[in-house]
Amino acid sequence: MGVGAAIDGNLFLAASFRYPMRVFVVDNGGQWTHREWRVLKYLGVETKIVPNDTPVGDLQDLDGLVLSGGAPRVGVDPSKMGRNGEYLDAFGGPILGICAGHQFMAKHFGGEAAPAKVPEFGKSLLNVREPDVLFEGLPDRFEVWESHNDEVTVLPPGFVGLASSPNCSVQAMRHRAEPIFGLQFHPEVEHTQFGGEIFRNFLKVCENPR
After folding, report:
1. Backbone angles phi, psi at 156, to 5 degrees
2. Which residues of the chain have pLDDT under 70?
3. What is the pLDDT of residue 118?
4. In this structure, what CATH number is given to the domain that contains residue 156?
5. Active site members
6. Gap between the Cα atoms of 185 and 206, Å rounded
7. Number of domains forming the structure of the chain
8. Residue 172 belongs to what domain range?
């Protein structure tokens, strides 16, 4: 491991990669997009925040993408998510969708996102139900931070649910064959336990996508 840096009192240790990693954050208007960028930066990768109307051709030399949370109500009007659909179809590398990015991912691939029966704002208890690289080395239950009015209500074909909470059945999902992941909760904020480890595990996928 390399030298670390502190964010809000949490220590993020830079990972060691075989080659310089480049993972950009697509800005969907989320209140914590800058935190996603900071965590990636402190984990030791080259990162940048880009608008969600960036042509997908401008992102082809990257190792991974993070689709940020955002102000758009995906369960009401997914059209406000810019070119996220193009990224999901044509980027070709690992993608991590967070909150609105996760919800849009579900709808884009044939699932459903809709207003949550219980909107969540604050801490919740995550239950990891399926082993996966994203949660490798983490406990089966830990606290996460929520901020959402909508949620994934139907998994898209080809995806598997990885984790749930008492009020949300799809807190995490991934494509069965491709390195495409979605998280309803926010791993980038200090109130989520093991958030840095989740990002680090995603970067391991970016380094070895197959």
Report:
1. -70, 155
2. 1-16, 71-78, 210
3. 83
4. 3.40.50.880
5. 99, 186, 188
6. 21
7. 1
8. 4-207
Dump pLDDT digits (tens) for 31-61: 889 999 999 999 999 999 999 999 999 998 9
- The mean pLDDT value of the chain amounts to 89
> How many Å apart are CA 21 and CA 66, to the nearest integer?
13
Which residue's entry shows tokens 């009020």? 167
How many residues make up the chain in this entry? 210
Q: In angstroms, rounded to a whole number, what is the distance separating the alpha carbons of residues 18 and 188?
A: 24
pTM of the model: 0.90
- Give the list of residues 6+ apart from residue 77 with CB closer than 8 angstroms, or none: none
- The span from the CA of 59 to the CA of 189, in Å, is 26
- C-alpha–C-alpha distance, residues 54 and 76, integer Å: 23
